[in-house]
Amino acid sequence: MIGTFLTRLFFAAVGLFMAAPIVVIAGVSINEKRSLTFPPEGFSLAWYGQIFTDEGWRGALTTSVLIALGAATIAVLIALPIAYALWRRVTAIGRAVQLLGVSPFVLPPVITALGALSFWATMGGYGAWYTVVISHAIFFTSLPLVTISLGFQTIDREVTEAARTMGANDRTILTTIVLPMIAPYIISGFAFAFVLSLNEYIVAYMTVGFTLETVPIKIFNALRYGYTPTMASVSILFVAVAVVVFGFVARFGDLPRLLGAWSSGDGK
Amino acid sequence: MSAAAPGTKAGGWREQAPLIFPALMLLAFFVVPFGLMIAVSLFERVAGGFYQPVLTTANYARFLSLFFGKILVFSLGLSALVSALCLIVGAPFTYLLTKLRRKWQVPWLVAMLAVLSLSEVIIGFSWSTLLSRTAGLSNLFVSLGLMDNPDAWTPGFFAVLAGMTYQAFPYAVLVLYPSFSRLDPSLAEAARTLGASPLRAFFTVILPALRMALIATFIIVFVFALGAYLLPQLLGRPEHWTLSVLITDQAIYQSNMPFAAAMAVFLVVTSLSLVLLTTTLGRKGRAA
User: Fold this and answer.
1) Number of domain units in chain A
2) By the CB < 8 Å criterion, does B276 face chain A?
3) Is A61 in the same domain as A32?
4) Which of A155, A250, B116, B234 falls 20 to 30 Å from A240 in CA-CA distance?
């Protein structure tokens, strides 16, 4: 049928557009010599080894991962109580805190970055490792907030009411019913915040840009002061990490639902 | 009983208790920095330093220049163009995507999320490589015999446009996704039963039904594009710099925090009024 053919063609075109820059970078990353040529000349995976053997790149990767782990953990710790309080009862204060949690992500990133720079430079601590962890956590709180709130919506009120009738107190209900049910949503929220923190540049640059080197900062510096194929291999590594993490979220959760589709019975 | 009657003071406090930690964190590390940024925008610059708390409106007065006016018009125009491109391709794409079985939607959604989460540095680097003379697309065209010599397509306006559209497209799809996937399928079926072709049904039934969602998405993607801080710098010439790039440049390379803060306040006001416009439109759409 001509309609199906046109649809496939359209999807292929969009797919090609989305893949093109990544394919070129993947090609560049397997160059044998220290040059950024495409199509690649020769074949070598040495530039992938470089990420872990070169002290600078390994250090940047470690820094990025540690910051992302810390930031995602704090983001979840901020988001979970907000979603929990709003699930128990929607109050004006709850709504206000929720709005604060979502705002940093909706505003242009330069705003959060500049706010963080003004804050840490005034309060002291500018350039210290914890500044970027905290500022990233605030920046990405909205992601676990959205996923965990969705998680609470899936809990059937009758189940918690039944538990309450049988004598369970708030704490027991929370630990035996609520937390196990929303655990997948907590993990998804953590994963989203982790991947975004890993890739974030401007907030990191304005807080620790002159003292620490995260992977995005190192790539940016390499863009200015000398290209190496390692930039390409580390970029591909980041693409792979994102695909794997979101793939896992999709494997163990309902990704369409997480992104706002109604859960429907058409058998996923 | 553990569940205090709703509305009683003790119960109220108990229920609000979980909010204390998040509220404190957000106040200390979002509200205070934000307020401080507004304050800094009204302070005097100290050359080689940061700022001194002497009130001045000089940072805002600098807006009233031709240079700034040009930057502003360019930023708004570029973001509008990017948002329009994303919507023109994104709306039919998202519609067709939601028509797929969920099993087939998932890989596309994973791909969209992966590209969306990619660092702006990586997107800028990838596109500058893709459009470069040494490693770019033009080499492919030369080897296919379509061109005689490889050519550099960056820096330039179209490189900026391509990079920013690439970055914003997954965002547009993910913002459109809920509305399209919640759309009543019987709507399109009814149109088909009445004899409309799929294309005609899409334009005359689906798009009008989602008019408000489309306008809201246009504004949301517009604000997102306005936030691009590196792509215009990595893929364009200085005349393609946007407000976000200029803010970064002033804050870091010119170390003029007060002026950067003033521009940031301006950017917030612009973005917020657009977001407010979206919510008002949304309310109207629901009322209609």
Assistant:
1) 2
2) no
3) no
4) B234
Q: Which residue of A has its CA nearest to B97?
A: A11
Q: What residues of chain B, 180 to 239, have a C-beta less than 8 Å from chain A?
A: 181-182, 198, 223, 226-227, 229-230, 234
Written as one letter, the residue type at B130 is L
In this structure, the number of other CB atoms found within 10 A of the CB of residue B175 comes to 23
Is B141 buried (19+), middle (13-18) or exposed (0-12) by CB count in 10 A? middle
Residue B17 lies in a domain: no
Q: Do A1 and A115 share a domain, yes or no?
A: no
Asked whether residue A50 is assigned to any structural domain, the reply reads no
Which pair of tokens denotes residue A55?
Answer: 């002290």
Q: pTM value? A: 0.89
A107 Cβ under 8 Å from any chain B Cβ = yes
Q: Are residues A37 and A60 in the same domain?
A: no
β-strand partners of B162: none
Residue A213 sits at the chain B interface (C-beta within 8 Å): no
**Same domain for A202 and A74:** yes
Quick one: angle between helices B120-130 and A229-252, nearest 10? 120
Domain extent for B256: 63-287
Please judge whether B22 and A206 are an interchain contact, meaning their C-beta atoms are less than 8 angstroms apart: no
Percentage helix, strand, coil, to 5, in chain A?
A: 80, 0, 20
| A268 in a structural domain | no
> For the segment B11-53, what is each residue's pLDDT rounded down to a tens digit?
567 778 899 999 999 999 999 999 999 999 998 887 666 777 7
B134 touches chain A (CB under 8 A): yes
**Whether the complex's predicted ipTM surpasses the cut of 0.95:** no
Q: CATH number, domain at B101?
A: 1.10.3720.10
Do A30 and A120 lie in one domain? The reply is no
**Digit-coded pLDDT (tens) for B59-113:** 888 877 888 888 888 999 999 999 999 999 999 999 999 989 888 899 999 999 9
**Number of Cβ pairs closer than 8 Å across A and B?**
271
Give the count of beta carbons closer than 10 Å to the beta carbon of residue B72: 18
Tokens of B103: 């099993």
